[in-house]
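just leaving the lab so this will be short. what follows is a protein written twice so to speak, once as letters and once as structure tokens for the fold. can you read through it and tell me how you think this chain folds. thanks a lot i owe you, the record is right below.

___
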Amino acid sequence: METELDLFKWKQYESEIILLTIRWYLKYSLSYRNLVEMMEERGLHMAHTTIMRWVHQFGPELDKRIRPFLKPTNDSYRTDETYIKVKGQWKYLYRAVDSNGNTIDFMLSENRDTSAARRFFKKTLTSPHNQSPRVITVDKNPAYPIAVQQLKDEKALNQETLLRQQKYLNNIIEQDHRFIKKVIKLMMGFKSFNTAEKTIAGIEVMHMIKKGQVECIHSYVLSAVQLINKMFGLTA
């Protein structure tokens, strides 16, 4: 993890302004050019490519730094993939929430197959705020049963873990996709898989904060600002 000094070194703008523009971009349905205009109204002149670089740099950093603050999720996984356009082609965003709608994890993938499903479940199990699943609810994608059985064979998943392939039970994750898709909509697709991955990481963090998944969040708006500033060493 980069230090605060490394992250903000040689930047033309104050760290608070950088985090403000990143937070707004990842939280609302705004384009980079919308943000340029909003900053100009405040007497700050910056190129849209500058904000874009900040988002690509800080999106993954937000994801790393939020993990220790996340409340535990429960052991009922609701898993699904949604489509994300990258360089004009559809890619697959694997996402899981628990039965209360809290985000368990996410992963952008080039493919929608057993290997991708397996990698996604392994990722969910590495985050300290997640429990090993008692039940995993998925749609009829045939890759899921194979991936789950492989993980059971490797002892990465408990043998007792139940896999349910019942699409109607997954309404909660399908509804949750909507926030992510809404924010991404104005982005007009991503130019590369790498930048898509970095940007989506930041969007997912803002969504988790909004859903109240952070231990120290009470009053959302002000506390979210304070939390992000604190994660980057900007508050006492």
